[in-house]
Design goal:
8 strands; Rossmann fold; 289 residues; alpha/beta; 12 helices; AB_hydrolase_fold
Length: 289
């Protein structure tokens, strides 16, 4: 069973936004949140293994396939995705949930966790780009500025020019290394372009990488597993180090040979690490009488 073999359901949020999702399994809720330029199909090989233990929901963020929601505009931020995640969890009665999130989906999950920690049983995060944390060091601040000027600004210009291929080439290469986009198989490249609107929303955002309070992160007592690729960029590695130093209940796994796209590069390693972590957690406490 893969995510593509499960019938897709659609949830219409109060704001009129539609979220497509698949659901399988029973038990404690577990929500998969994909990163930029992906959609719910990103988790296609993970649904069945996790559904053996959990009630799994994998959904597409609002500007990812197969959605035809209103054009992104200039107001979308990861906090928008956090609000959508909250609405999804409320509508499907998923809280408290384990949340497994990749890249910018992890920023949305963290933003919501800071607002509603009681809605989370745990977090599994694959390199959430909380980029303002990089400014804790001179090296990190320099790398962050270079990333915004060398990757984000050209991508935004390409989208304005109506050239999503150029935009996505710059973004993919900026996150995963030069030449990655052109080296993708045709099917994978087509899927990236199918989800270009998701990235267009992000690069046009007034706050693409929101500042999350260091004090609030240090007070976030949600069991958290952080997955970091050994071949990720120096900027993402520095951000992960800063985040791990702040979170009070964190375990780290370094995934050998993986880039920022950990769940695609090493799906079995990520799955095994996540399941070991999740199944090792204490059962939820019984409600007080």
């Amino acid at each position: 069973m893969t995510a593509s073999e499960i019938p897709t359901s659609r949830l219409v949020l109060p704001a009129g936004v539609t979220l497509a999702y698949v659901e399988a399994g029973a038990g404690e809720p577990l929500v998969f949140v994909h990163g930029g330029g992906k959609d719910l199909r990103y988790w296609r090989q993970q649904v069945a293994p996790f559904a053996e233990h959990f009630r799994v929901v994998a959904y597409s963020r609002r500007h990812a396939a197969p959605h035809l929601n209103a054009p992104p505009g200039d107001a979308h931020t990861p906090r928008t995705d956090a609000d959508d995640l909250r609405a999804l969890m409320d509508a499907l009665d998923l809280a408290p949930a384990h949340v497994v999130a990749g890249s910018i989906g992890g920023v949305a999950a963290l933003a919501l966790a800071l607002e509603r920690p009681h809605a989370f049983r745990s977090l599994v995060l694959a390199e959430p780009p909380v980029l303002p944390l990089a400014d804790a060091t001179e090296e990190g601040a320099t790398l962050r500025r270079a990333f915004l000027s060398d990757v984000f600004a050209p991508a935004a210009a390409a989208f304005r020019d109506g050239d999503p291929t150029r935009a996505m080439r710059g973004i993919i290469d900026g996150f995963l290394g030069a030449g990655t986009f052109d080296g993708l198989p045709d099917r994978a490249r087509a899927r990236v372009l199918q989800n270009a609107r998701d990235w267009e929303a992000h690069v046009r955002s007034p706050e693409p990488f929101p500042t999350l309070s260091r004090d609030a992160l240090a007070a976030l007592r949600i069991p958290t597993l952080m997955l970091t690729g050994t071949r990720t960029t120096r900027l993402h590695a520095l951000v992960d180090d800063q985040l791990a130093a702040l979170l009070p209940d964190v375990r780290r796994v370094r995934v050998e040979g993986a880039t920022h796209d950990l769940w695609a590069d090493a799906p079995d390693v990520c799955r095994d690490a996540a399941l070991e972590f999740l199944l090792g957690l204490s059962p939820p406490s019984a409600p007080a009488p």
